[in-house]
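can u pls check wat happens w/ magnesium ion
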Amino acid sequence: MSKLIFVTGNANKLKEVKAILSAGSTPIDIDSESLDSKYALFRRDLPFRYVSRILVDEVQGSTQEVAKAKCRRAAELLKGPCITEDTALCFEALGGLPGPYIKHFLEKLGHEGINNMLVGFESKKAWALCTFAYCAGPGEEPILFEGRTDGAIVPARGPAKFGWDPVFEPAGTGLTYAEMPAEQKNLLSHRYKALEKLRVYIQSL
Ligand SMILES: O=P(O)(O)OP(=O)(O)OP(=O)(O)OC[C@H]1O[C@@H](n2cnc3c(O)ncnc32)[C@H](O)[C@@H]1O
Ligand SMILES: [Mg+2]
């Protein structure tokens, strides 16, 4: 495989994926120029953010079902192999919700509202779940690679640069994702754990 095409509308995800995959004992070289132009091209011609939103609205399923549907659709649009990623934030007190729908909750409620969702519940436990999907091409069944990091929902701390980073504190760290240096987050995050599995698979192709 010469190029790894990661289809996303989220620039922060792209940044972390590049940083994680290019590090480690078996780095995967990403041709960042072609990745960026593919990304830009794709964004311009077919706004994936929009596509993925339609899929999330229509596919009312588990994280796995949402992730597979998005990757299948992306492979059809690209007419070739691709990788997509879905991130869910799951609250223990809510039986795993909002899960794959966290994006909509975050947009409507903000960090404070996310905390308020758990007022009245004793457990503030939560886990971040990252699901990468690899689809070999149109009509192919996507393969999933999951990573999970456990922690708790806390009042926002740290710079609000990426999604719900300020309100998620991974267990045993005492820091929110937002308070950590990128290198620390990228060695314990849900995304890192999923990418370590994807890395092995890609290198076996
Ligand atoms: O185009 P795609 O890849 O779908 O990008 P997206 O931004 O729509 O992403 P998701 O559908 O996976 O929705 C996940 C939500 O969680 C946020 N998010 C994802 N990873 C995160 C991380 O590591 N830290 C904080 N917020 C994150 C992200 O900004 C979204 O609001
Ligand atoms: Mg999305």
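Residues 11-204 form a domain with the Maf protein fold (CATH 3.90.950.10).
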